[in-house]
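Appendix B. Raw example, untouched.
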Amino acid sequence: MKRTTACLVVHPRSGKNLARVPYVVSVLAAAGWTTDVVVKESKGQTMELAARAAEAGYDFVIAYGGDGTVNHVLNGVLAFAGKRSTAVGVIPGGTSNVWAAEVGIPVDPVRAAQTLVESEVRCVDVGHVGVESLTLGAGSSEIDQGAVSASGARRHFLLMAGLGVDATLMARTPRRLKHKLGIAAVVLTGLKQLPSLRTFPVDIRSGDAGSLVWEGRALQLVVGNTRSYGKVARMTPDALLDSGELDLAVITARTRLSALVQVIAVMLRGKPAHAHSKASRSAHFRVSAPASVDLQLDGSAVKLKKYLTAPARDALARAGDPERVMVNYLFDAVPAALRIAVPRGYRGQLFGHGG
């Protein structure tokens, strides 16, 4: 009988996760799994470690860390999509652990390992984000129409992608404080940033025909593949993991006071005020927003320059004010792209077809 092989990719998190690794491996071994352990040692290494594991043909690549670690692992595994049948498993070890909360994976690493060996592998949709072009102004038609997208960046997301204040908070929350206080560190950063909240112009179109969804000034835009948003809100409450579509939510605001009201509504009610929000669903969204607006995938900030070729980065630098440069993003649903372990007893609502 073939033994299950696994590669456990560990985010150390100041050594806290490392201390539990022997116990996790023991649980997997008791279930007949052969597990190798690799540890992230430098920034950006997790995706490379996961890609190597998928290339080596492991049955599972297990992300032991937060949602950012899960995102890096799935991007590494998907680099070999169609070439290997590797599945992703998750042992929570981060700040929010939103995916674990969504599907009922215990936060305790040992119990999570026990749940993993009893899980079933399911095919789920993922989201994909890319940069189609940059609009630099009247004298930039060549770069507007030319290819600007670089290879090798993190492009897929399991939970959601966000443009706006959430990505700014993720980027500005000190890592040490985040490890020490958890989600409270993000809240504290958010309170400090309240006076500087600002809206940005956005143009959103959906479908192959590019039908206009909404145009105006937004505080926050979320493209969701699942429902929970940082475990404090449901920005896309009807999203499904097997629909072949993504759900979009926009928090609109005309003034700074209105923006503040929206933030408070999300924090207190778990959702934005209906009168100041827009929602849509599609397999494809085209979003145009200023280059100054931050982007996050699965709760961790990503830098625009990672998505751009060297000529495009140079053109962006020469343009000067990033407020005046519009980035034209494409968000796509990629149906049944990822094989991921889901607890066998899951009875939630994320699956609409056969779930």
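End of appendix B.
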